[in-house]
Amino acid sequence: xxxxxxxxxxxxxxxxxxxxxxxxxxxxxxxxxxxxxxxxxxxxxxxxxxxxxxxxxxxxxxxxxxxxxxxxxxxxxxxxxxxxxxxxxxxxxxxxxxxxxxxxxxxxxxxxxxxxxxxxxxxxxxxxxxxxxxxxxxxxxxxxxxxxxxxxxxxxxxxxxxxxxxxxxxxxxxxxxxxxxxxxxxxxxxxxxxxxxxxxxxxxxxxxxxxxxxxxxxxxxxxxxxxxxxxxxxxxxxxxxxxxxxxxxxxxxxxxxxxxxxxxxxxxxxxxxxxxxxxxxxxxxxxxxxxxxxxxxxxxxxxxxxxxxxxxxxxxxxxxxxxxxxxxxxxxxxxxxxxxxxxxxxxxxxxxxxxxxxxxxxxxxxxxxxxxxxxxxxxxxxxxxxxxxxxxxxxxxxxxxxxxxxxxxxxxxxxxxxxxxxxxxxxxxxxxxxxxxxxxxxxxxxxxxxxxxxxxxxxxxxxxxxxxxxxxxxxxxxxxxxxxxxxxxxxxxxxxxxxxxxxxxxxxxxxxxxxxxxxxxxxxxxxxxxxxxxxxxxxxxxxxxxxxxxxxxxxxxxxxxxxxxxxxxxxxxxxxxxxxxxxxxxxxxxxxxxxxxxxxxxxxxxxxxxxxxxxxxxxxxxxxxxxxxxxxxxxx
Amino acid sequence: xxxxxxxxxxxxxxxxxxxxxxxxxxxxxxxxxxxxxxxxxxxxxxxxxxxxxxxxxxxxxxxxxxxxxxxxxxxxxxxxxxxxxxxxxxxxxxxxxxxxxxxxxxxxxxxxxxxxxxxxxxxxxxxxxxxxxx
Lengths: 636, 134
Known about the structure:
The complex is a heterodimer of chains A (636) and B (134). Chain A is built from 21 helices and 18 strands. With 636 residues, chain A is of the alpha/beta class.
């Protein structure tokens, strides 16, 4: 045989791979070999390749070799079909021929004769069946087989229906779960955005109740003792009354909430009797099933969520997992809200402390300041009293030696009377009249002149007056902001120009930068002028050592157009960083010797705050300081 | 003991300074005053090498310091400089009644005594005591 020759095609249908390999090996030199591992594939293959010969194993699973032979014969009536079998039962050959096979080769295959046997069949050899009873027997077998198959099919259809039903049930479960998850997501989203604890728990029970359609939802939080779970918020029947009544459950007790917290896991009541549920929940008589979800943050349980339903067995195990996810997020949100609350109260406490500190500082400064101002008064008073005493004692001594007629002079009588009245004050003021007189007598004139003079008396009176005046000056600073206000439209450029002019500040010191068309502000012009006078005075004070003094006054619209800002800038010594916060404190002053009361700035701040404005300060040591006064523009 | 006791008085509150100066003068002391620590130090150094150095100094604690800035320890700084120049020099520190702690600190650092401003007659007695003890 040459390569150009067409090889006959042989299809071999057998479920045993070893047999297929053997037959292939025996035939491939002379035949084009095709194979199939089962009956149905074999039939398809036969139709596809149109073989010249088909070999079929009779003991195929499902669709047997007999049935394959019968089917192939009806599809390809001219193709010889040869049965190949190891079946040693009686009449196998006859059964094969009855089913339509053209021949029969017994297994095991004889390698020496096999190719020759195939060649015979290809050459037209056919075996014939003599006994027709085998054909009818075969037909009966086929009918039985068909019945069996129909039964199998019926069973399969039935189980298919069951599977479909299961699938539908699963789908329903999945959809329910998805809805649950969606609700959980919505609840979680809602709760994590609320920072106030009360709002949080109230909103949460409402959202859970509405999203899931539960009959009742309650949030219990563990109290300070750790023994009780207190109802903080409820949604559903009798919820508000229970919260107000301080409804609480013992942790570790028999309630589902108490147990859930104690055991740190979600619990479901599925099989509780109606009587028992009613006993546990007298306020929610329609409860048929319930679930408690512990609220866990880190390693501590802070409470539990209780949900109740009117339906029996409303909660599935897998719901528990989903809802616990929500409870976990809720727990974190509650914990955060609590932390924030703690933080807020700490902050409030801090503010109170700071306020007290500021008041204490202000009071301390005030006492210090007044004390300092008052310090010289007692000394001066003492000296004036002593000086008056001295003069009167001198007058009396002089009169004692004067001629008698002089005694009658009304001035002499006045002086004598006055000197004598000294004794009456002796006790009260502890005047050492004798000692003073002795000293006056003893000291030489030059020394006396140094000790005693009207100048000195008047100077002491001046000291008293000035001290008293500077104490009284405080009054204006204290009362200023409280004065009756006369509010009107004020154009800051005009006010600033006039204020600076009235203060008599040299023209070469002041630089104006006034945006003339800024909007007006509402203020009492006198009070506002008082503020700017104060700030400009401060600026001038800060420059008292500077030779080339420069005072900038800059009025413009602020970055926030709702405000007009006025800058008062000096090129003075600057305010040290450690002092800059204290300047706002009442009675703090860095220039007590120059008449500062320490009330100027706090009074300014008060006035500006009352107008809805603010004062800011920026300072650089050695370069200068800028006070910025922000005032709101008139609203249209 | 010298005829006249020479007192250096330092305080930045002008009225307080003048009032104390008058009380001391009246009590017979030779008083020289300074309104700030820089002037005070210069005055002390000038007299130190002269014929009649100071016998005692009376210093306020809270006033502008050598840099001209308000400083509650300015008096303490002056005290240190004076004691550096003359270790056995007698110094009384003045204080407001609410700052006694700082005055006690000054005494620890070498001041002879502290005096709470207000009763000038007592100050005279204190100066007398310190001078007589020397």
